[in-house]
Amino acid sequence: MNSRQPVCSLFSSLNAFLFYGIVIFLTTNNTNATISSSSSYDYRNQTDRLALLSFKSLITHDPYGALTSWNTSFHFCDWSGVTCGKRHKRVIGLQLISQGLEGSLSPHVGNLSFLRELRLGNNSFHRTIPHELGRLFWLCVLNIVENEFSGVIPTNLLGSLNLETFQLGANELVGSIPKEISLLSKLNYLVVGNNHLTCGIPGITRTVIHFRESVWWEHSRHLWPFEKLKTILLRWLLQLRDNDLSGILPPSISNCSKLREFEMSINRFSGKLTIEFSKLTDINHIGLCNIFESREANEIKSIDSLNNCSKLEILIMRNCNFKGALLRSIGNLSDHLAILDLSENKLYGNLSSSIGNLVGLTHLAYNRLTGKISSTIGKLQKLQFVVFNDNQFLGPIPDTIGNWSMINRLGIDSNELEGIIPLSLGNCYRLKVLYRDNNRLSGNIPKQLLQLSSLSIGVDLSHNNLSGSLPSEIGDLKMLSFLKLSHNDLSGNIPSSLSGCSSLSYLYINDNLFQGMLQPSLSSMRGLVELDLFHNNLSGNIPRFLEGFSSLQALNMSFNDFEVEVPVRGVFANANGISIAGNRKLCGGLKRKDQPSQSSTNERFLKVFYIQLLKTTDGFSETSLIGKGGSSSIYKGLLEHDDRFVSVKVLHLQTQGARKKFIRECEARWSVRHRNLLKIITSCSSVDFQGNDFKALIYDYMSNGSLHDWIHLSVHASRLNLPQRINILIDIASALDYLHNFCGPTIVHCDLNPSNILLDDDMVAHVGDFGLTRFLETNSDLNSTSGVKGTIGYV
Description:
CATH superfamily of the domain at 36-224: Ribonuclease Inhibitor
CATH class of the domain at 36-224: Alpha Beta
Strand content: 15-25%
Radius of gyration: 34 Å
CATH topology of the domain at 36-224: Leucine-rich repeat, LRR (right-handed beta-alpha superhelix)
Strand order of the largest sheet: 13-14-15-16-18-20-22-24-26-28-30-32-34-36-38-40
């Protein structure tokens, strides 16, 4: 059969030639009267004209009137989207991009024998691609991306040996890419992504493969067998992101000395990164984010080899499993560098003062670094986006960050920073969002910060040691969407000027020392969705205006000193949206039978003190000890006036991160309730008899210990039968399903392992230890640059 294909192909081409010749002849005779009136038309011009009219005849919808001018009143060279040569008046270009055209593509376009550019991208052409396009010998550019073409790529379409740009992306094409593509010696731009193509790209040596991250070209699958590729000689750019490419990332890419853009993010390569970047002297964009499926460590020297890349503007090597100390030579990278992202790796050490040399930086992200933040960072005056979260930075925040006049997002949360918030931050007049939570910052909230009218997204200063009152300037943040000041030592009245934050949706000022009444002026904040006032010293009546907040979905007023009657309308009618426990002077409200009683709510927040826990655990003795970890010890005890055993988890506060784990566990446990989650009875935050901080969590006691014991200890191994194992798995899955899908915000446990699965008297499993919990409150949290923490192997 293979030996007959050339004959059949030739016969088919001859038939097609004769057929269309007869059609043109008959059509020409039938329209002779029309064309005789225009002496400018000759036979060849008429061929082009009829081909264009055939194109128009198959268009079923033209919403913008792109083809309105295609009539006898105008010469076809003057028709919209048509370009003709100056000498012979033959069609050399047809450009109708993004015109909303619907219909099929006429095979008569193949009669436009002088056509050099055919651009029909972003329309709604359907059916197959006419194989007659293969006649267009002079065609240089074919762009039919983002249409609805189906079927295979016609083999003879690649007969246009002058093709330089070949764009078929974002259609419904199937099958493989024809091997004849290897004959296109002039091809330098190929787009085939976002189709249903299979197999590899055969015999490519000089072609640019471009699957840009966009609606058009991402998510193409298995299109290039990298593991079989030995030689690559690419020009300009290589973009293959958002695919399932596997195998070894070829070291031969090092030989692409003219390569300018190298974008391979989000794939599944194995092995190590062995590309020698020092040879890519023209490179300006490197994107290697989440490219390795295997977790073999990469040498940090790969970054050092970039010092020769003097034209580099974008460097993204996020989550590439780099290990080692951050090189001091980081400041020797290109002074054209604008984006530098090495986050979600295992880099450690100090942030070199040489970072100040990269004066062109606009984006900067790191992680796992230690030491102080060098004041030289203030030289980076073009910075717009900084992510330093989840590092181990120490000491004060340098005052030189006030030089970042163009910064709009600043994230330095979850570090060990201390000292005051620099007043110079008030110079960052383009700042939109600020994260400085989970540090050791102290002092007052500077009014200069609250006078930044640019703050429109949010401010998070929670989990610090801030004190003093909330400045009245808070009311200047009229466009602010969220404000988080929880877990500090802020005091005084809640200023009435807070009502100026008319766009505020989320307000968290829980776990502070605020006092006094809620001011009537706050009634203007009707856009609030969540309001958390938990654990302050607020007093007076619960304002009736809260009943009228139609957007309010969650209101926590627990453990304050509110009094008199609880309102019954609005959010107060929803027992799942309101918490008022610990206000002893309140009465009324929440009377529906299907809602929990006040006593059952109070039970969750039982108050215990250090002396009580000391007694119930026999002085935290070894005989009461039932478990021990790096950041806590767990004791068994019997609560006074309560006929039940409990587990007392005492935090080792001298251990790094223990305080954060305590806070996160409290937040997680008080926002969830499920039969397969280990129930928290209460917590204790106090001081011991030596005046040291003391923090503990009290849980239901699990008599059958942990799943780890049943799996790994010989005393239990023979007693865990198959039905029990299945039931335990179901219990765990039920708990995770609830955390992921049925509580708000979504909670990710991050430390699920057999030691944290506890079994009660009936062998029912309960998921415990929420010290590494993450809350996914917004869509952006799903793409957080924070690294995954927890027990590797179980995560």
